[in-house]
Amino acid sequence: MSKKTVKFGLVGAGTIGKGVVDLYKRNGNLINKNLDFNISLEKVADRDQERLQALDLEAAKLTTDAADIIDNPDIDIVIELIGGIEPARSFIARALENGKHVVTANKDMMARHGQDLIDLARENTVNLFYEASVGGAIPLIRPLKHNLIADRISRVLGIVNGTTNYIFTHMAQDNLSLDKALSEAQRLGFAESDPTNDVEGLDAAYKLVIMAQLAFGKKAEFDQVYIEGINGVTYEDISYAREIGYTIKLLAIGEDLPEGLALRVHPALVPLEHPLASVLNELNAVFIESEAAKELMFYGPGAGAMPTATAILSDVVEAARCIQGNISNGVVEKKLEETGFVPIGATEARFYLRFLVEDRAGVFASLANAFADERVSLDMIIQKRSVGDLAEVVLVTHAVKEEAFQRALSKVTEISAIKPDPSVIRLLN
Length: 429
Ligand code: HSE
Known about the structure:
Elements: E1 5-11, H1 15-33, E2 38-45, H2 49-54, E3 62-63, H3 67-70, E4 77-80, H4 88-97, E5 101-104, H5 107-123, E6 128-129, H6 141-147, E7 153-159, H7 162-174, H8 178-187, H9 196-199, H10 202-216, E8 226-227, H11 235-243, E9 246-257, E10 260-271, E11 283-290, E12 295-301, H12 305-324, E13 348-358, H13 363-373, E14 378-387, E15 390-397, E16 400-401, H14 402-414, E17 423-427
Parallel strand pairs: 1-2, 1-4, 2-3, 4-5, 5-6, 8-10, 10-17
Antiparallel strand pairs: 7-9, 7-11, 9-10, 11-12, 13-15, 13-16, 13-17, 14-15
Helix pairs in contact: 1-12, 4-5, 5-10, 7-8, 13-14
């Protein structure tokens, strides 16, 4: 008996789109060998003819009009890879309303409008798949939805941005400044020519919102995420962190606290013995703490055409299975509860602080008083090198509420012997 065919179309033939086509050409037979039906690429749309030609597909499969896919009654599944909010959101909505399953890698859109689109998918008894939106090839969305459905997750810690992980790795390994490490990442193709979203932490924040909702089953808003990028971190900080047993990573942290969700993205000192410390270069990892499974780490390439294409084609297969099995809403989507959110000021952390002080009597005493006034207890004080008549001081606090630390920090920076712009980095606890 001949196998049935489920047809899919692709909107957006950029780097990832081309990766999907290349992987399908290379491994389509392998995928279909394992299924009771075939998946088949029907059409690719892109406004750019050159991109279409680069796919090396027969002309009948190429179009410059996305409507040839979104409104095509022969196509069952639409892959959206144009990125950004519009027209991606409208295209996805139209495809869902047309009764098509949709696969997307669009993290900005899933973080900002994902719930509305998931609701729209339900109304139309189809599904929206987004495995590739976080962590590229790393299986993460499906494990959070399916494999861990019987568990209660308390904390998610992610290195979910490859650009910044590459930068920190090479600042540490090659003694580079942040700017030099970024240029190197761009030269080698690990960073975009405009890396603003990566360096400023926005990319990681989008991914955190998507993960947090699935991990905790609670509504999270992008605007609730405290975001601090990597620009303030220097080579000296990385070097001193290592001396005291830490490495520095940009972490996306989600916690399910009794008062609500605490969501933040910032550079953090990670103990060298923590599994996340061994995640180097452009690789990503997500560390999950939960009641039953205890600790899990998901690790792998978080970006790149081929790694991301594996996640996208696996979603196409999931969508095709729903169609073949006649399963409407065959994907578990968490029923999100409304919850409070915990602002950064109400969270607790230990802090690393590095600054220059005039090297004279009484400076440490005034420093100690500023911290004591706010009941900030110090765990470590190290006087580092002298630069002329200035001494460099590194200190680490015990765990303290962020707002108390910030009040103490304001007092510290008012001390005339202390030079402005100290480095302040939280520790992972
Ligand atoms: N620019 C991202 C990164 C990849 O550097 O990890 C896409 O999300």
